[in-house]
Amino acid sequence: MLPGKKDRSPVALEQRDVSGDQRMFSPSAARNSTPILAVLKRVLPVRGAVLEIGCGTGEHAVCFAGAMPNITWQPSDPDADARTSTSSWIKFSRLKNVLAPRDIDVCSGQWGVEQTGPFDAIVSINMIHIAPWAASLGLFAGAGRLLHAGGLLLLYGPFMRDGAHTAPSNAAFDAALMARDPSWGVRDIADLEQVGKVAGLVLRETVEMPANNMLLVFSAGSV
Description:
Helices cover 35% and strands 26% of the residues. It contains six helices and eleven strands.
């Protein structure tokens, strides 16, 4: 899904299977859930509330919430099919700490979850490179509004360092993204740091992940 795009058409860069109960299955989620979970268990509090932006199929939500039973997980996605899949995964998992998915467009000034915040963390996985730059700006602005002091914004995906790709495969992926939509692309960590400062967030940690991905950990109210 492209946040802010008026036709609100879904975006998936992979082939996904769909079960009879409308659960979608993401090959990338199957690959990256375990390494992402390892980082989340290290940096998140034992108890708290997490907002996921761009939950996609919902597999991450049930995986992470199942492994961290004292975390309340609020998934969200602007795509109706993604929310349907997520709702089905929640029902299938029988987890009580995953809330019904919300319709959130990060480019909006109000996300509709202000009354349930502030949150201990906001997580966004493989979203900002398949959305316009305005989505990154909106994501950080929303994090600045909705995170507790010391709360975390965690971004997973491919990133550039100081204008350079970290691997030839990422450079090829970036070119393919921009060929599909010129407003997409692999984002530079330095640019995200600048946006974070405006929103009151500071990059606390950069975690190297498999397949030339990273997990960026921003903290609200850090100095």
